[in-house]
Amino acid sequence: KVQDYLIAHVGEPVPVKRMADAAGTSARSIARLFVKGLRLTPLDFVENVRLDQERNLLEATNFALKAVAFDFGFTGLEQMRAVFQRRLGLNPQRSRESFQLVCSPLLPALCLAAATARGTSVVRL
Q1: Residues 35-63: pLDDT tens digits?
Q2: Which of 6, 69, 78, 125 has the CA that lies 20 to 30 A from 96?
Q3: From the CB of residue 104, how many other CB atoms can be counted at a distance below 10 Å?
Q4: The pTM is what?
Q5: Distance CA 69, CA 4 (A)
Q6: 125 assigned to some structural domain
Q7: Contact at 8 Å (CB) between 65 and 77?
Q8: CA gap 54, 69 in Å, rounded
Q9: Could you report the per-residue pLDDT of 55-87, keeping only the tens digit for each?
């Protein structure tokens, strides 16, 4: 229930208290449940959801990086870059560029294979 709420509100700040309210429990219980069930803190889960959706958007569009950062609840481009670097080991622009190299219009089969391997349904053809 909380995971669905977080996914639906991915671009908004979602304090643990709000998560707890959505689930009808305490903030402490939410934190324990996340760590026990997902082996992630609530913040880590939110960052993972944001990064996954953000990465798909970067790869599928030419939206400005700064606009994408704000759309997904980051305070700015620098925060998004820092989270991207820490979690994925690369910056958002390089992620976009590497996907676009693979997904040129001349190589649709490689694009589909790359998207399938990553488990995403977003395909740039």
Answers
A1: 999 999 988 888 888 888 888 888 888 88
A2: 6
A3: 12
A4: 0.65
A5: 21
A6: no
A7: yes
A8: 8
A9: 888 888 888 889 888 888 888 889 989 988 988
